[in-house]
Amino acid sequence: MFEARLLRGSILKKVLEAIKDLLTQATFDCDDSGIQLQAMDNSHVSLVSLQLRADGFDKYRCDRNISMGMNLNSVAKILKCAGDKDTVTMKAQDNADTVTFVFESPNQEKVSDYEMKLMNLDLEHLGIPETEYSCTIRMPSAEFARICRDLSQFGDSMVIACTKEGVKFSATGEIGSANIKLAQTASVDKEEEAVIIEMDEPVTLTFACQYLNYFTKATSLSPQVQLSMSADVPLVVEYRIQDIGHIRYYLAPKIED
Amino acid sequence: STTQGRLDGFFTVV
């Protein structure tokens, strides 16, 4: 028996919105530590890694490890039927070929359940090596979303250059060029609003705007985002989800010809 | 100009 109940059901709605543009199907791996999802997009340019810890749920039971392959468009359709304040419960029997989503309104007067067929996905599990990054940048997630949106008007690619002075986002295209520089916040009153840079070595990398814009669909999950960069390795864009886990996106850099 | 890199090779199949 698997059962995961979340009073803040809107988190699951937001998680689906944050991954469904990148992935059409994925496996939810459930064990007694929680729920993990890890999948590359079809073109193997980006990878999504989601972790929701068991202790972040209001009720969590997983008697046997279970891997549930799901069509994410179908899951997104179902979760759109949940109210923002609904409690969401996912449940499945051991060895089941379906999963059930139950939505309860705050006053318990409306209870809906949606049963969905599971898919048999034969997906590879990937090991993500522990990496020491040359630069990490923490910044408000809404600011990062704004920068990605604004710069994608100028070109398909965005250059992210991090030095100890700050971080510069640049794009160049037919209409001209755009540069946005963020300095590290001098004094931190509210950590959520701060730009904090940790740098061992300066790094400049180029990324596809389209993917960065997909990642920013996770903005509503966290007030802050963390970017981790080293030369010639994938960028990591991490949104921490309060008290329950995180969603991390990995993106292969563009390579100079 | 630039070409899009791929993730294959960065991660190992486990």
Order of helices and strands of chain A: EHEEEEEHEEEEEHEEEEEHEEEE
Spatial ordering of strands, largest sheet of chain A: 6-2-3-4-19-18-17-11-15
**Class by alpha and beta content of chain A:** mainly beta
Mean pLDDT of chain B: 86
Percent of residues of chain A in beta strands? over 45%
Radius of gyration of chain B: 10 Å
Low-confidence stretches of chain A: none
Mean pLDDT of chain A: 95
The shape of chain B is rod-shaped
N- to C-terminal distance of chain B = 35 Å
Count every beta strand of chain A, where a strand is a DSSP E run of 2 or more residues. 20
Tally of helical runs of chain B: 0
What share of the residues of chain B does DSSP label as strand, in percent? 35-45%
Which series of helices and strands of chain B comes N to C? EE
Overall outline of chain A: globular
Helical proportion of chain B, percent range: under 10%
Given the helix and strand composition of chain B, which structural class is it?
A: mainly beta
**Number of strand elements of chain B:** 2
Biggest pleated sheet of chain A: 9 strands, antiparallel
For the termini of chain A, the CA-CA separation is 52 Å
Q: Helical stretch count of chain A?
A: 4
Architecture overview:
The complex is a heterodimer of chains A (257) and B (14). With 257 residues, chain A is mainly beta. Helix content of chain A is 14%, strand content 47%. Chain A is built from four helices and 20 strands. Chain A has helices at residues 10-19, 72-80, 141-151, 209-215, and strands spanning 2-6, 25-31, 34-40, 46-53, 59-62, 66-71, 87-92, 98-104, 111-117, 126-127, 135-140, 157-162, 166-173, 176-183, 196-199, 203-208, 224-229, 235-241, 245-251, 254-256. A nine-stranded antiparallel β-sheet of chain A has the order 6-2-3-4-19-18-17-11-15. In chain A, 39% of the residues are buried. Chain B has no helices and two strands. The radius of gyration of chain B is 10 Å and the shape is rod-shaped. The model of chain B has no long low-confidence stretch (mean pLDDT 86). The A-B interface holds A 40, 43-47, 124-129, 157, 206, 208, 233-234, 250, 252-257 and B 1-8, 10-14. β10 of chain A pairs antiparallel with β2 of chain B.
